[in-house]
Amino acid sequence: MLQTPVRRPLAILALLFLGGACTDTERPASISTEQITLAGSTSIQPFAERWAEEYHEGRIVVQSGGSTAGIKAAQDGTADIGMSSRSLQPSETSGLVQTIVARDGIAVIVHASNPVHALTLAQLRDIYSGRIRDWRAIGGPPAAITVITREDGSGTRDAFETFVMDARHEISPSALVTAYSGGLRKMVSQDPHAIGYVTFSQLSPLVQAITIDGIAPTERSIADGSYRLQRPFVFLTRGEPDGAARAFIEFVLSAVGQRLARGEGLAPVIVQ
Fold first, then answer.
1. Are residues 176 and 200 in the same domain?
2. Which residue, 60, 173, 190, 243, is most buried by CB atoms nearer than 10 A?
């Protein structure tokens, strides 16, 4: 029996088109003719490709498309393994099995020169809902805040809205929208008055991560849950994984696979 940190059923949903842009990571055909297809979260995609590079038991194809697309692809069998960077909704809890393979924090970032190094969760919510519009209101310089967010359907945006927003507060329609974490980071690095959010692995010296309610995003704070803006990276299979899919998941959860996760900036899960 495959040991996984978390496993529970998910829901039957209709097929969602995975999108045109996809990336294939392949092992040499001489090793194995068996192919495993992964599809879904653009946040998990680069890590799945990294695991695939070190996996020597088959040909791995990794496709993007978003977390919702990954859930549906696993459900309808168009992918052997779906990838989701968000927790599943109650309506998605029938027919699939989920395996958490790592944890990722969502870091709130500002320009490297910004003197604001800390926010409360309430302040962050007010910034993104448009109630706070000027840095001066939270201890910064007198300048309008450039609010940047991810696109609808992004697992990163979904997680941010779950952790930060609530039923009475939505992300302001005046916020700038970008489709990629890397693009968002670049926008923040070029605008002294910008604020945004990226996956923990996307942090770089070009921007600074701010503390939320006094807790900074670190591997330890993400793994132990003290940093509240953290989410699971989930592999999804239709029923219990078996065959090639099971073998690949076991590799990802092995000591080697988890060291790779840590090396790429993720918080590894504890595998018994």
1. yes
2. 60
Cα separations in angstroms, 199 against 9, 96, 168: 26, 26, 25
Q: Which structural domain, as residue segments, surrounds residue 91?
A: 9-103+232-268
Q: What is the pLDDT of residues 10-67, one digit of tens each?
A: 333 333 333 333 444 444 333 445 899 999 998 899 999 999 999 988 899 999 988 8
CB 112 within 8 A of CB 189: yes
The CATH number of residue 259's host domain is 3.40.190.10
Q: How far apart are CA 169 and CA 171, in angstroms?
A: 7
Q: Is residue 4 part of a domain?
A: no
Residues 76-127: tens digit of each pLDDT:
999 999 999 888 888 886 789 999 999 989 999 999 999 999 999 999 999 9
In a domain, 128, yes or no: yes
Same domain, 92 and 159: no
* pTM of the predicted model as reported, rounded to 2 decimal places: 0.68
Pair 127, 105: CB distance under 8 Å: no
Q: Are 182 and 113 in contact (CB under 8 A)?
A: no
How far lies 244's CA from each of 70, 151, 194, 272, in Å? 18, 33, 45, 22
Structure tokens at 93: 């809890």
Both tokens of 110, joined, read: 């500002």
CB neighbour list of residue 30: distance below 8 Å, 6 or more residues apart: none
Total tally of structural domains belonging to the chain: 2
Half-sphere exposure (CA, 13 Å, Cβ side) for 224?
8
- Whether 193 and 255 map to the same domain: the answer is no
* Residues linked to residue 209 through DSSP beta bridges, in sequence order: 109
